[in-house]
Amino acid sequence: MPAPARSLEVAGASVRVFDSAPDACRAAADLVAEAIRSAVRERGRAVLGLATGSTPIPVYARLAELHRAGELSFADVDTYNLDEYYPIAPTDPKGFRAFMHRHLFAHVDLAANRAHLLDGTVPEHAVDEHAAQYDRWIAADGGLDLQLLGIGRNGHIGFNEPSDLPVDRALALPTRPVDLHPATVADAVKDFGAEALVPRRAITVGIAPILAARSIVVLAFGPHKADAVARSLLGPVTAGVPGSLLRHADGPVTWLLDETAARDLDA
Ligand code: PGA
Q1: 38 in contact with ligand 1, CB cutoff 6 A
Q2: CA 242 – CA 62 distance, rounded (Å)
Q3: DSSP strands (E only) in the chain
């Protein structure tokens, strides 16, 4: 595992700052691989919560490499993806099903029926029940061993966007359909080509099932994430900064950062 340039404890979280994002991603892949191996050893299976976005792509590349080298199997793994645009066709290359196939599923021995994603095609009248069912599936599979997360510039985790909810209500948020924040829509323009083409809604795993994971690994790289990282770790716990709600996680939270994303932690 690449060694961090420095490690700190901030608000109960372990923060590891790396010289480069690729080093941090290798470390993240090693944490995921270790979570798989130890859960399979202890319970015969591992359950992962997975994230999309540009940040974790090298993590998936490294996991695929470990698999190719014969060092890691996904044969006893279930995965639950964190979110999906709504509505979106399952074959849409901009959807997260296609993303996961491209970056991980096509390259490892994960059974197709064990790769769970929220479905951007369910009809409007069934979307609440579909989201509730997803939480029941996660629970029935024994809960998440590890949740991999990115964080938005606006502090969102999954598509749990900033809100003015009281903290206790934010902590209880289940998996559900949501409206995307304008900053999230703006960030998605690079994928969809034009703002008018970005879906305005999504389905996201809620704050409550994220916090219930047995461990959480958060990745953030680049100066555009520094403010969200600092507010999540040093600011008040508030639904206005969903990343700050991670301080109420049930299990250990590890932040893997590069120097630019960590820069406001020393201020
Ligand atoms: P990004 O997105 O990895 O594309 O920066 C992170 C997020 O919005 O959670």
Answers
A1: no
A2: 28
A3: 6-10, 13-18, 46-50, 77-81, 83-86, 115-116, 146-149, 176-179, 201-204, 216-220, 253-258
- Report the candidate in 207, 213, 214 with the shortest Cα–Cα distance to residue 245: 207
Distance CA 107, CA 103 (A): 8
Q: Would you say the CB of residue 224 lies under 6 angstroms from ligand 1?
A: no
CA of residue 52 to ligand 1 center, whole Å: 7
Indicate which residue of 83, 84, 119, 258 is catalytic: 83
54 lines ligand 1 (CB under 6 A): yes
Angle at 264 between CA 152 and CA 61, to 5 degrees: 45
Per-residue pLDDT of the chain (267 residues; tens, 9 = 90+): 889 999 999 999 999 999 999 999 999 999 999 999 999 999 999 999 999 999 999 999 999 999 999 999 999 999 999 999 999 987 899 999 999 999 999 999 999 999 999 999 999 999 999 999 999 999 999 999 999 999 999 999 999 999 999 999 999 999 999 999 999 999 999 999 999 999 999 999 999 999 999 999 999 999 999 999 999 999 999 999 999 999 999 999 999 999 999 999 985
Q: Is 145 tagged catalytic?
A: no
Side-chain-facing half-sphere of 111: CA atoms under 13 Å: 9
Catalytic: 65? no
